[in-house]
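Board notes, transcribed. Complex of a protein with zinc ion.
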Amino acid sequence: MKKKDLANHGIRSRQDRLRILFSGRNADAILVSHLADIRYLCGFSGSNALLIVTADKSTLLTDGRYTIQANEETSGVEVLIVRKSLFAEAGGLLSLARTRKTVLYSPGQLAVSQFAALRKTAGHLAHWRVDPGLVAGLRGVKDADEVAAMKQAADLASAVFVDVLPIIRPGLLENELAAEIEYRMRHMGASGASFETIVASGPRSALPHARPTDKPIGKNELVVLDLGAILRGYCSDMTRTVFVGKAPRRVREWYGAVLAAQVAAIRALQPGVTAGDVDSAARRVLHRHRLARFFTHSTGHGLGLEVHEAPRLGRGETTKLEAGNVVTIEPGVYVENVGGIRIEDDVMVVQDHVDTALKSAQILTSAPKDFLEL
Ligand code: ZN
Ligand code: ZN
């Protein structure tokens, strides 16, 4: 098969797997309204669309701005260009068959007014039931093409991290460094950043989600860099922490503890373990170093077409991991008024976990994790 045919085949099989899932739950159709889900199921990457998948047909509804793009990008769907409300049209489409259908939908992805428009035109011919997250479940297990794209996206971000190290010095503004990172990612082929790049220096590095500011990086400061690139639609997400100057012993010890926690969580990543088990593996190490109370967020999250997707690796999460899940592992410690350290890699869950895999394909992020004093 040619490359394009292979891609089409992959996308059709995603729709077919979805059909098996919803018919197994006694539903006749699913209305997909989350754009990343739509992209996953049919390839369409525009900003306004709905997808209806029934037992024998898939229809993509979008507007006139996307006539050419929808025909170019999609496979396995009939494209319907809608002049007015997508929701009113979708409801009308569901009522066409004149038999009552059970339709799954995601209330969290719809405005009240949009659901009202759907209900009005579908009338009594649609019985609406909440989707238990069927597409999210499919998206959680990556196929070989997706993993290849994610590996490239992770390598690109890793290369940019190594590339900017020589320019990190006292006096450089956080904003300047963030701009350099984003420029270099695009220059190396990324279609954009997966999220707003984080550069946080000195006491600001103790804020896990700091936005870069006009603060100059100071001498003897920690700098947290959290960056990700989008390639062929897929996101990477990595964090490294460096020290500008010669680090005090206490900071070196913190770094060693965070790295040990990160490695422990990666070792715990195996098919069949729960997301919560992986989180505890990281937390246990930090507890041993008396740093657990400074680890104030969860250990990681799923990654793919979106930078945050299922599964979430947090305290007590009962989701069982499967081979093909790609997640971030990103423990950190944050000490108010002093600074923070986080180390984050993108990692794939593989079937036969062996310790040597820690150095091989399982970890997608390739940037070094040694403690760097610049
Ligand atoms: Zn990150
Ligand atoms: Zn992350």
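The domain at 3-138 is CATH 3.40.350.10 (Creatine Amidinohydrolase; Chain A, domain 1). The radius of gyration is 23 Å.
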